[in-house]
Amino acid sequence: MSGHSKWSTIKRAKGVTDAKRSAVFTKVAREISVAARQGGGDPDANYRLRLAIEKARSVNMPADNIKRTIDKATGGGEAEQFEEIIYEGYGPGGVAILVEAATDNRNRTAADVRALFTKAGGALASSGAVAWQFEPRGLITIPANGHDPDDVALTAIDAGADDVDTSGGEVVEVYTTPGALEAVRKALDKAGVTVDSAESAMIAKNTVEVDEHRARQNLRLVESLEDLDDVQRVTANFDIPEELFAEVAG
Predict the structure, then answer these.
(1) Confidence (pLDDT) at 247
(2) Looking at the domain assignment, is residue 5 inside a domain?
């Protein structure tokens, strides 16, 4: 199983608890706000906004909340100004970590992110120190249950996907260029394939192996970073040892 498939399986196993649902809504609302402000409030003409709305629906964000966020971002009401920032750092054992944030206070977010890296035994890095180890990709996640992985792979590749990972057990991951994401998603929808999520993502070019102790430390760091309201997405390049994966995904 690829490193990224393990991450997806863990996230599916944990799900979205009621306690974290409001935090998830906050993050998704910021994503909608940034997309609408940059590209306009029409999802048919703003692909990034369409993806953000689909993500909001996937976590059961009320339609009124979605509309209100778009209206505020496009001038229908007072809206906070969010700035997109990517922080780069190293976790325990030299693991490369990218932290994508949307914030209305750069100083606060930088301090919060730095504090978590330091507490975990890692460190923030200068711009460009880590980013070269990742690449922008389109990522579509499909539940393996109810679908023949080989059929999904053929449909996706025929539609222009670069790669399909069927080794994830519970999930099938389809990788595309960022520009082909929408076309591949539409082709899968047309073929009757249930799509869990479709998003632009930063994917590690290669994963590094760490021992179980370091893996636990890095998992805690990633989870702590993800719990920050300002943080939209965290990507790390370490592979999770099988024993630990079975424990946290079980």
Answers:
(1) 82
(2) no
Compute the average pLDDT of residues 80-106. 93
**Domain of 40?**
17-73
Answer yes or no: is 4 within a domain. no
223 belongs to a structural domain: yes
Residue 162 CB neighbours (<10 A):
14
Q: What is the DSSP-derived secondary structure letter of residue 104?
A: S
Q: How many residues does the chain have?
A: 250
Q: Domain with 25 in it: what CATH number?
A: 1.10.10.200
Which two structure tokens, joined as six digits, stand for 178? 């960022």
The tokens for 81 are 């100004």
**Span 129-163, pLDDT tens digits:** 999 999 999 999 888 777 788 888 999 999 999 99
On the question of pLDDT at 215 being above 80, the answer is yes
Are 185 and 229 contained in the same domain? no
CATH number at residue 144: 3.30.70.980
pTM above 0.90, yes or no: no
Domain annotation covers residue 156: yes
Query: Inter-axis angle of helices 106-119 and 212-226, to 10 degrees?
Result: 160
CB neighbours of 193 closer than 8 A, spacing ≥ 6? 142, 147, 152, 155
pLDDT band at 1 (very low <50, low <70, confident <90, very high): very low
Confidence of residue 2 (pLDDT cuts 50, 70, 90): low
Provide the domain count of the chain: 3
Which of helix, strand or coil describes residue 101?
strand
Count of alpha carbons within 13 angstroms of residue 75, beta-carbon side: 4
Positive or negative CA dihedral for 209, 210, 215, 219? Answer: negative
